[in-house]
Amino acid sequence: MDSPQSYSICAQYACLYCRQHKRRCDKTLPACKLCIRRSTPCTYPRRRGQIPALTQDTQKAEGTKPISLTPSDTTIARHYRTTHVTTAIRFIEPSVYHDASLGPPSEDVSIPSSIAAHVGHPDQIYEIGAKFFQATSLWMPIVCRKRFYADALNPISPNRRALILLALTMKLYCAPASENGNDTRWPLYQLVRTFYADVEATAPMSVHILQAAVFIAIYEIDQAIYPSAYLSVGTCARYGTALGMNKLMTRRVGDGKPGLSGVEIEEYRRVWWAVLMLDRLLNIGDPGRPLATEDPTFDSFLPMNDRDFNDGMFRPEDAITVSAGFNQKTSLFGGLAQATYLLGQTIKSISSFPSPYGGSQAVRFEEHTAQLRRTLHAYVQMVEKWTAVRKLQYCPASAICYIALFLLQEHHWKQTGAATAQEIRNSIFFETKSACEAICIMAKDPDVGCIDPPISRVAGELSTLFRQMIYQTTAQFVMVGFGDPDGDTKNKIETLTGILHVMQSRWHLSILDLSKGGPMVSDRLRHPESNQDKAKAVFKRIGQSKR
């Protein structure tokens, strides 16, 4: 039988260095072992009898292309192959990966100078983390603060490049918006996308890469970068599924495999809930579009206490399900997860009743969604009471519930074929009217309702959920006015439109579709100065009340 050596890829002739020093060359590609051991460039001849000491001019004349590989390049190439083999085994045969205890492969920890300029120093990482955790603590707490600092500030921690990527996306998220309409964050976004593609292709799979992808998707949603935002969320869904995050939703202690602590399980669930939420938010404009993720069930586990999560303390046995969460107090992010479940049910109901049909179909839709509307309305009342008890002014779950109610209302108008202002007013739901009134009170009085804390600092730092809620509310009043609103409706539209203009520096799509709402709205969008002054006065009052 042939020896194993005959099956490897070898050069036809000995390398020039071995021939010159009369050494036995093993002829392996891309470099022989002797040259690697001696840190010497390894060059193989292209024809028999080639003289070792060839000048560059002679090489060009003879068409010789030396094949050389330095030891450092060889190490990186060997690491690249090893990383991909181990990652492929984990993806194709997960049972073999766990049974063999392969573990994550070692990775190249080198960081490009362009990236190190932003997050290369520990002080930079600490400052970015402090801003980030303050900005996302109430609506997107998917990164464990204690774990992040412990790993990112440790120069020998595993998955170093993934942690640096996460820190870079944190900086992108916290970067201030431009006032003159030119997005100064665009070069940083391009740098993030380039580094993300490199890390995703070469680093072992980790939750940090997925967390970075989530914040990239949030930036793209805010800046109306489509279809990139839609594709990014789909990538997040596939990546999370490959990591097995969807399985952790209904398993209290994970998948039974070693290597995941209780805090890691909680972090996995939180990231997956964030993916579920973004996937459904992107389908608001077209509820019939297929989702990239399956709907959570009543048996899915909710996020635990936010403070315990950030401090790294979590017991898997304390987790509660969606069904139990409607009767117990949950964390702020747990409430957002429950609202995401209700939004998924809303999209599912709308998809099962395509429009327009009218007649009996519209009646069936109204009856079919009656219980869902009551649940959304009751849940808003419940979470706002919990928010008041906690002396907080922010309620992200309410924003999602309001958006779900507005989706049901808009689809009902399509079902009934409402063509006049009177028909629209006669077919408006009680829950929709209550939601609109609550949001208008919140917009006029910063001490009432659920206010997003970042408003008190910078108007452009509003969360995506808050901006979407204001936009959907404005669209509801535009529909009720139907081009000729009464005085009260016109005043509410002016207030909400002014807030949208203030938010435009951060959310570029805030007023795009409202120009179709009639002459009054179009005129307001062309002359937004008075609205901006009103909104800025509201934000100033909020800041004073917070202080």
Automatic annotation (TrEMBL):
Organism per entry: Trichoderma lentiforme
GO molecular function: DNA binding; DNA-binding transcription factor activity, RNA polymerase II-specific; zinc ion binding
Biased composition (Basic residues): 537-547
Pfam families: Fungal_trans, Zn_clus
SUPFAM superfamilies linked: Zn2/Cys6 DNA-binding domain (SSF57701)
Residue ranges, annotated region (Disordered): 522-547
Protein name (Swiss-Prot/TrEMBL): Zn(2)-C6 fungal-type domain-containing protein
Alphabetic keyword roster: Metal-binding, Nucleus, Transcription, Transcription regulation
